[in-house]
Queue: 2 jobs
Job 1
Amino acid sequence: MVSKPASRCRLAAAALLLCQVCSAAPYTPASDQVVLAHLPDSLRALAPPSRPLEHDQALTLAQQQIHQARREGDPRFLGYAEATLEPLLSSEPNDPAVGIMMATIEQSRHQYLQARSRLKKILKAHPEQGQGWLTLAVIERVQANYHAARQACRESAGHLPPSATVICQASIEALTGPPGPVYQRLQRLADSPLPMSDAQRRWMFTELAEMAWQQGDAEQTLAYTRQGLASEPGDRYLRFLKADAQLALGNNQAVIDAWQHQLAIDGGLLRLAIAAQRAGHPRAEHWADLYQQRLKAAEQARQQLHLREQARFQLEVLKQPQAALATAKRNWQIQKEPADLRILTATARACHDRDTLALARQFIDQHGLQDQRVASLLGETP
């Protein structure tokens, strides 16, 4: 792919934000016999019920649909879950379990304001709902409301297994100070006989992998992702983090081998395109084109785009730092996790945007975040 010549970043960013996307004419098949797509078996098996289910059955099915959305990265399952819950939302509007599950769907769609408002209303009436506090903590953490996130973790104590509260608190502390002590505490938890469900153990290894990544240790990140994937090989987030560690270690072929036959997962396709381009793979341009088509289709359908990954694609594959910076800035308005700060800093550095680099430093100074990759980018700023 050929990138456009560089120009001043602020002008390019403004142009990108102001330009209108010209939509192509919709495709019309020649006949009813034309197959437009083959639906995965999971879509059929987890489709919304044709009639309302009983309370517990509906919650179980909705939970399975949400899990499948996270596993496959397919937002259609979130729509299925919402449709499954809709009758309960109408007939039992004050049911806390139904409301918390709906807030989980909203959180997964990055509809943080709606999810937060729903959870606060529920938790005011039902403070014993530990899962609700955890979900609220995640939302506050993603938006860098760390004091509120800590409070939500504390409120969950006594309503959840002790290990869940420990992991929740550790996930916040690692973002607001030296990650080393918190890292060691979670390592001790991993070695302890404290009972944990598979989901809690996977969460713990995810946090350990994130902390190792924060400290610039790709080898240890890889080790923890493998431990987390032992109980759920399809965990999408851990697989993405594993691929990122492999890319950092220069093991492009491992990423290609893992993702070249799973092109339906957007985040996997992105990492495949990056690995293939770095390795000079003959299908590198094809996979990059495929990811770009995916982005255009989502935009035309007005679906929620993952702006962080879009910015990474623009920076690393398309070599369009100005466009990447504009996207990273839009993403920063929505969420402020370390990965969001990394892409914001990387794109700002590529564009020599001193104002945005100053914004990154201010955020770090305000919250005490320590991230080796961000520090390296800021330290090398000309």
Job 2
Amino acid sequence: MLKLEPDDVIAVDDTKIEHPYGHKIPFLCWLFDSSEKINVYCMNLVTTLAVKANGLEFPLLWRIWRKTDKVEQKKSKIELVKQMLLHIRQQVGDIPLWVAMDRWFLCKNLFKWLESINFNWVTKAKSNTALFQLTWYDANGKPRFRPVNPRQLLMQVAHRFIGKKNERVSIAIPDIFIKMPEQKVGKRGRVVTKYKYVPIAAIAVTRLPEDVEQRATLQSSDASIAAYHGTHLIISNRHDAPEAALEAYVKRWRIEVFYRAAKQELGLTSCLAQNEYSHMAHIEMLFVAETLVRVAMWELHLLNEEDKGDDIIFTHGQVLKGIFTASCRIVSVTQQGIESIQVYFDTTGTLFSRFIRKKWPTFMSLVPWVINHIFEATA
């Protein structure tokens, strides 16, 4: 069920977890929160989230970005993303996967690295993203390009969005290229960086999930976003499949929904421990809980499809309360000389009987919690 399959999407993003009273925790620092427009004393968590084609979504790996002067600990968020994606690639093999990112991760070196290990990338263009449009071929058959910015491309197709502001409309703009760096050996034997025109997909789209969210919460848009009259420009390396690229980017919003649920319902910001390992264990257990909640919601979805009756729709909070805070009674029983432990759930647990029956372990054992082994693999 949780196995990644071809063309599944891995959403990448980071969030700030405010801890105003933990000044002795080594990975906390002052950072600017772009959503609140203030500086906060916080932890910067970088996360990957899997969104499968069948609708199931669950968190994968996480890293903590550290603001430090120590060379051995100083890594950029892009380097942390590379670590996580490389670990995922080693686990799933060479199947093609999508990586959906916001515009902060728009980095050409990252794009080339992703393509080298069979990842397709998609992101939203910045207002200053340098793009090039194929205009004509000269007498020698050599292509000629003119530089354009995302706003100019959006203006070219703006007339096709007239009267369609209340629905999601996407238009693929052909013959768009980007300059990608390429290492070559020069005449004197030295490695030099050359730039090569590479075709990309450029999709003008309106009413993305983040646009609807901003209108609902009355948030002001960022000036660095490439937008024109409510339309945005999505770019991807899959110039041959713009529709698939747009579908993958739309799924990126699920990681924002995950962060909201983690902070409001799972207690991501509620850990008051004063040591590093406790915070790491808190995050790890939160990821496990979120995975269980998402699998339970998926089981309910399958149950609705099988019954073909009235849909039983539960919110994230209702499923969380039903699974983790359902009251239960544990009784030790001896029958015919055989001792057993019986667990009785209340009526709330019956809603998730299908999930419990499939995922309940056949046997349980208590083993030591090996902290170093777990954190080396996940944090």
